[in-house]
Amino acid sequence: MMLMKKLALVSVLVSSLAACTSEDKKIDESVTAAAAGAGKNEAANPNDFKVDDASGKIDFAAEVVYFEFDDATLTKEGMGQLDALAKYMAAHKESKLNIEGNTDARGSIEYNLALGQRRSDAVKKYLTTVGVPAENLASISFGEEKPSAQGEDESAWAKNRRAEFAFSK
User: What's the rounded Cα separation, in Å, for the pair 91 and 121?
Assistant: First the structure.
C-alpha cells in the first residue's frame, strides 16, 4: 500500500513538473542576472560555516533561503547567501549538498511538490552558475510536508516558503 502511494506521488510529481515549463524561464532569468553580479552579499563569510556531524545541517545564516508566495525566483538576499555557500563549497571540494525545496500549505499536494522542486532546482542552478559542480548537489522537494512553522497566517507561511540545505556524508 505504501509503495503504491509513493508510486502515485512520483507519477503526479513528474506530471506536474512537465506541465510547469513557463516558470523555468523566470528562474533562468534570475540565475542569469545573478551570475552577472546582481545581489552580491559580501557580509556573508564562508569561514563562519559550521556543519553538524550527526545531522549534516549547516549552522549558518545560509542554511535557509526564502521565497515569495507561489514563486521560485531567488531574492537578492538569497543570492548573497548562496554566494557564501558556494565559497565554502569551493574550499571544501569533497562537500556534497542536499537542497530541500519546501512550500507553505496553500495549494494542492501535487502543485506544492512541483513548486518545491522548482525552488530546489533554482538554488541548484544558481550554485552551478557560480561554480559549484552539479555532481556535488542533489535537489528534492518536500512540498508542504516539512513545515518549519505552524499556523495559518502570513508569518507562518513565509517561514515555510524556503529551500534548506544539509551536507550529506
Answer: 23
Q: Name residue, grid cell 529551500.
A: 163
Element (H, E) at 34: helix 21-35
Given the C-alpha cell 549547516, which residue does it identify? 58
The amino acid present at 5, given as its one-letter code, is K
Decide: residue 73, CB within 10 A, 0-12 exposed, 13-18 middle, 19+ buried.
middle
> What's the pTM value of the predicted model, to 2 decimals?
0.67
For 7-34, the pLDDT digits (tens) are 555 555 545 544 444 443 333 333 333 3
Q: Where are the extended beta strands (E) located within 28-118? A: 50-51, 58-59, 64-66, 96-102
- Domain map (residue ranges) of the chain: 7-168
Q: Rounded CA gap, 33 and 48, in Å?
A: 26
7-168 placed in CATH 1.20.140.10: no
